[in-house]
User: Fold DUF2207 domain-containing protein from Leucobacter ruminantium.
Amino acid sequence: MRTLTRALAVCAAAVLLALGLGTGSGAEAARADVSDFSYDRWSVRYLIEADESGRAVAHVTETLTARFPDFDQNRGLVRGLPIDYEGSSTDPRDFSVRDESGAPVPFEVEREDGFVAVLTGDDGYVRGVHTYVIEYTLSDVILARDDGTADEFYWDLTDFEHAQPIDAFSAEIVFSPELAERLNGDARCYSGPAESTGECGIARDGGAFRASVRGLAPSEGVTVAIGLQPGSVVQPPKRLPNPALDVLPLVVGGAALATSGIGAVLTARMIGRRRVARGIVVAQYDVPAELPPLIAAPVVGVSRSVVPAEIVHLAVSGAIRIEEGEQKRGLFGTREGRPVLRVVDPSLARDDLDARAMRAIFPSTEPGTAFELPEESESFAQSMSGLAAAGAEEAAARGYFTRERSGAARVLGLVSLGIVAVLAVLLVLTFLLRPFSASPVICIIAGVIALVLAVASISKHRVHTPLGAERREYLEGVKLFIGVAEEERLGVLQSYSGAERGQDGTVDVIRLYEKLLPYAMLFGLEKEWGRVLAVKYREQPGYAPLWYPGVAAHGIGDLGSTISSFTSSLQSSVSYSSSSSGGSGGGGFSGGGGGGGFSGGR
Assistant:
């Protein structure tokens, strides 16, 4: 027995042939394709009435006159009908097939993939002109409009998948006397390809409507929309409002969002409170040795330029020196060389993390060892990424962080998880009973968001300890010092007896400002702080920064831009990763109603 799958494949093959995608010669392909025929005429008659329960029933008669080739190619027709219409089954049934004289025609009915298919004929071939009169019954063919202004018979009278031309089409839609009294006078006919708004003529005679179209090309069809007064027929249960399945999931989804959202807010507030020690930020001119940039970055909550700041920190501390790389020749001339780092005095990398950074960067920490920053090196980038991660781990090990959860947020998170579980059950029921409802999509989005927030609410989070909060406020004081006017900075320095001073007893401002440069980089203020440093360098003629001798070559006045450029160069080295490219590569219209389906030869 031929299956519906084969029928669908036949229709698909016809479309491919129509597009010129078939293989072999045109004549041979045409003789081999069972969809290579035409329709002399396609006419339909719908008798629509209400059953004893008030629901719409259509008794359909389709008369299809097919012209087959004069050789053994076809055994009959295939006519497929969709089973569901707007969330409810039309229950296609009571099939019969006869010829133009009324003699019965053998046929089979198969159901598969949401369609019911009538396959006419038997194992014998048919040639020439043959007429098939197919009768069947459908339920719930009249739909209540969403705006409540009308009921509507909005139906595709032909399918839009046929690969054959139709020379002439006609339709008659007859409403029972009871329904004819409920007609509101609105009627439209649309013809052409799917979603076409081109109209065809439709005439009314009492409770009957007639339409005709001369010539339909392959994949063109006819759709009618006939209006009735609201409430003319009873809608099936699946189309009627169901608070338990339409509204309740939305309410439950909203409750899940609300509880999980409050839990997330409580969690965020807990994290925020743990960042505060005294709540007072005082300008600070120096950073303790135990807060190198690798530690300071997680404590203050920044992630930009962590490794570049650590490298500059090593340089201004005297452990290493930053040098200009040699210019390199290429096909398009010379270009600037990559920065070179050179070990000067590893003993000045006093913090354990500073020493670890030295070992991660240089092949050896012997004085004089040089390392050119690579332009493209995944291994170097991964090593530097591990160095930044080590800083975050060490910050916790030194007592600046711990992991805690909010008790109230945990309770709300657990409640939200329970609500999400209830929502999941409701969604399953909604999908089974109301597959065309829009509420499941909204509820799925709400449920996913609620689930994420609930998990965040019940989880432990990394928070500052009292010591960590104190250190964070100290670093915020450093940021404040960097950002204030120079007069205020000098006032701060003069007020502290512990400020680093020169042999004459005055504050060694340049030395202090150089040590703050790595922290300015963490705060994104390297350009501004570079300009401040440039002013101080110019105030001491002949001064050359030993940590970066190349500054003098670029010009002290351009120090801010030089440092910013150097930071960008460092950042590109420590964040490099290789990648591969990829690609992804009336208001009505024909084909917008129920019915339709598919048709073809067999």
